[in-house]
Amino acid sequence: MDKSHPVDQTRIDAVQRPKRLRRLNAKGRSKRAKAPKRQTRGKRIVGTRSRTKPATGKQTKQQACLDLLSRPEGATVEELQAATGWQQHSVRGFLAGAVKKKLGLTLLSEKPDLGSRRYRVSNTI
Length: 125
Hints:
By secondary structure, this protein is mostly helical. The protein has a domain at 61-121: Orthogonal Bundle (Arc Repressor Mutant, subunit A). Helix content is 46%, strand content 8%. It contains 5 helices and 3 strands, in the order αααβααββ. A 3-stranded antiparallel β-sheet has the order 1-3-2. Strand 2 and strand 3 form a beta hairpin. Helix 3 (61-69) packs antiparallel against helix 4 (77-84). The longest helix is centred in the first third of the chain and has 15 residues, at 19-33.
């Protein structure tokens, strides 16, 4: 009755193999045990949607800000906040990220003696 059970044999093999090999074999078994991924149907185009420009007649918050900034007197952070509903840090982030970096516009900042700082976009490139 000294027949060894197959499970006992795998345990003995596992103990005798180095830890690194046991780990590699365990990973290989788990990948094979997974069911194959289902083939999905190709993506269907429901409608065309332009991601670069908004629908006509609808003005975006970004465009509203750029309109305010392109005025000769420019705009304050408070005016931009009122126009968009953004918080102060979001307006400043828009000025630095979208206006200066992404759009590459020249942003001028003017601080009069009385009043708050005004930003405007220069028409000359």
